[in-house]
Amino acid sequence: VINSGSVSAISVRVTDTLPTGITLLTSTMNPSAGINGRVITYSLFNVGANDSLIISYKAVIDSSIISGTTKINTAVINTNGLTKIVTASFTPLNRPLFTLKKTVNGSNNKMRPGDTLVYTLTYSNIGTATAKDVFITDLTPENTEYVSGTVTINNILKTDAALDDEASYNREINTLQINIGNVLPGNSGTIKFKVSIR
Questions:
Q1: In the 8-state DSSP scheme, what is residue 159?
Q2: Distance from CA of residue 152 to its chain's centroid?
Q3: Which residues pair with 41 in a beta bridge?
Q4: How many angstroms separate the most distant Cα atoms in the chain?
Q5: Cβ distance 158 to 176 under 8 Å?
Q6: Which DSSP category does 185 fall into?
Q7: pLDDT of residue 112
Q8: pLDDT at 130 over 80
Q9: Which of 11, 134, 173, 197 is spaced 20 to 30 A from 73 at the CA atom?
Q10: Distances (CA, A) of 140 to 32, 119, 152, 161
């Protein structure tokens, strides 16, 4: 709140109306204020001539918000018989953000033909919307051979047969295929399988 005038602004009242789709973090409010639904009302205060007061808070965008829809935050300032309306807007992007990491256990300089490697795929949706119809493929490395019946998803053993469950192995193209399905925001999982060195 800026008072660029030559006299003090007395009994300033500020009300701030939050748009739908965001949640106020009350612990971040400075100064504290009254809250009624989506309306924040600050206690009366004075602002001296050529002086200012900073009002701040943080809010979290809800996962239900419609992506690409502009949201407008409106604040009303009343003082000395005058009213001023100020707005701020933002356009949220509500979408999935999928990550995938691959690690191997058992790989060292002493590995020989016939030894076994364990691969782990770790996936996660760190976005704000559901990742739909997630399908992961993994090509078996050169000079290795997939070990049948070793696929686990979140520590649950799966078969290698096509259409039997989420996992299948295509030996014609040496590729493991995993049908994860939908992954909700914040959810993650692990896939493990073994290969032998040829």
A1: -
A2: 26
A3: 15, 34
A4: 87
A5: no
A6: T
A7: 86
A8: yes
A9: 11
A10: 58, 10, 16, 17
